[in-house]
């Protein structure tokens, strides 16, 4: 009433109306913000869902329970470990016993990088290394002056270097390193039988080409440092040998420089992004290979270049999902668009599984054991079972964890059985780590031959001088 | 105007008392019919607004809590984590899927002496005949005897992930050395003999490999926790032409003091011959697990100096065997200590920087140790005999120390002995072969 007398009834009503409008507007605005926050979230302030979970966790303290098995904390030890880390320099038997425990040790506390980080020069276009144009001549000169390192160790058998690798830091997944260990044992066995040399890489040569592109600078460096190597065989760490008796038909590739598993129609006609596989391939040590590596690399440098290249590849290739450029898609694109330059020396092999996608193979192992025998290398007994997408070293892959790990065990045992049978043993089953005897010991061991003839195979025989 | 009506109605809602009064005042002249119509409209508006508010509330609630199974990817994540945990626990356990068709394991008869296999009597002549009949598998290539490096680890994952990671690094280290020196590797992950499990598992494997590979002249056992730290040094096998077992140790500790660490069975070489088979047969009896191993442990603790009380291990058993039957075996055993065929890590790892400063690879001894052996660290188990940080730090340093020697050929080196990252130590060039000639270890060793 007082206000009415000051301003006047009409004006008062107008103010009240305005206030009412204002109230409604504000209510609507608040509602909109709340709804949007609920759906999209507000960045680091989180969503109401996260708030809810935080409150719930605070009250119930469930998270510790979930992580228990993954990190193997025994409750008392963790408590003690915490108190030890709190009381820094306390001596005494209790502290030493826990300082000796490997559980829950963080490796990052001891790793230390010294010296400056190498920064690439942003003004220069990316290059794998100094351009070399006369590699064939340089190499043949070297081979002539070093006859004790021939590039052919048998009449048809070239010197081969199998290259694989993994990260120098522990896997995110607690059993990832164990599967890497089994994978390397599998490769050691195959390479010992077939006289192939091995290089296990744990170094990132070029920080710009990280991830799946890391193999390119490595391959180039190895080709140039090992002129005695005729063929370089790159193999992913998640690929396992499952046919120990199969020898790669080297004579078939005498006119080719690059052998990959794939299909000509799928690459050149369809431009399908999985028309070939770069998880297991052979590359000859020659100028042509250095040139194709240089042509392959430009889509690799991480950051904007790789992102943009990824978009081009998704657009141009059939079936490719949207993600940054990967080396396989880049190779399909390179071959499809520059077939006249490279196609004549590329051999897309599909008569045997130089790379075998695991999904269609792993369930058939028992059937293979029943009906076939090692040495075939194809769909009847695959040379390589490649666990694409499983990512055992990472936290989550594209497939269910259980299926991946169990099947990798089976594939490993399937290959390992062929090695153990040389010594008269086999795994109790494809899922079991235990072995059982299948051939009794004898006092005349040299009379006994192993079924597959892998103890002294023909492809390992030393060239006899006539 | 319309808006005004709406606002009036809203005011009706929020302020019922005044609105009622206001309404009464405003509509008193409209009559009963008009009043009823207004009531209906009011109710209708109320319902509209109620529905609107209800709708908005549901939207907001869905944004916060979600609608059970339709909502939250986070619940999915939780399920995934729980499943992963279950699978990991299963993988890490030592259990096997039990096959009902398997015959029950026969019980061990403690009265019969354990044997590695049927006695072989003429191995030397059998082997010689085989080599003559198979010239494409010679035991000497380019004047160098064929060596097979045997190492291994248990078939199940380590108790902690660090263990598997360092096993992996140790294998890479061995692959590098063996590639440079033309040695084949056998990595064993199977327990060939249930009774000889643990550190004894090497005995049946060594015997098996000797008999299956007559073309192999020397079998070199190396523990999984031993790393090569001198990539250039080669074992001088010509020095041992009259010996069949080369093992690192100290003769005075062995014969005078009878110490249980007089020899180290973490890295030794066995020639492929009858003598070695006989020694293995004499070595094995203390191994079978159970009461035999425990009893044997007591004997060994009683007879060897400084040995703690625990079950029989292969090292103590070999020392005891060689001491007690000195006359039978020692003339063919070479106790080597002029270079570190086995180098105990504690005295070596802190001196790497000093070594890099003053010396060079190829020496193999205390100036540049051939092998650094991490005895007692036990990274694959849960507990070691030494603090974890010290062990892992030292293992990382030893690995990088060796890796630098391999990477030198490629023009790279680690950014510090504790760093997994590498840096360029030599610029790229258009003529890489001149550096290959300079830095390739294999080439250098071949021309010797």
- Please report which band the strand proportion of chain B falls in: under 5%, 5-15%, 15-25%, 25-35%, 35-45% or over 45%: 5-15%
Supply the number of helical segments of chain B. Answer: 16
Beta strand count of chain B: 12
Shape of chain B: elongated
What attributes characterize this protein structure?
heterodimer; A: 466 residues; two-stranded antiparallel ribbon; 41% helix; 10% strand; B: 448 residues; 16 helices; disordered N terminus
Could you please describe the fold and organization of this structure?
The complex is a heterodimer of chains A (466) and B (448). Helix content of chain A is 41%, strand content 10%. Chain A has 466 residues and is an alpha/beta fold. Helix content of chain B is 46%, strand content 11%. Chain B has 16 helices and 12 strands. Chain B has a 6-stranded mixed sheet with strand order 4-3-5-8-7-9, sandwiched between helices. In chain B, strands 1-2 form a two-stranded antiparallel sheet. Chain B has a two-stranded antiparallel ribbon with strand order 6-10. In chain B, helix 1 packs across helix 2 (16-27) and helix 6 runs parallel beside helix 14 (388-407). The longest helix of chain B is centred in the N-terminal third of the chain and has 34 residues, at 31-64. Chain B starts with a helix and ends with a helix. The chains are: A alpha/beta (466), B alpha/beta (448).
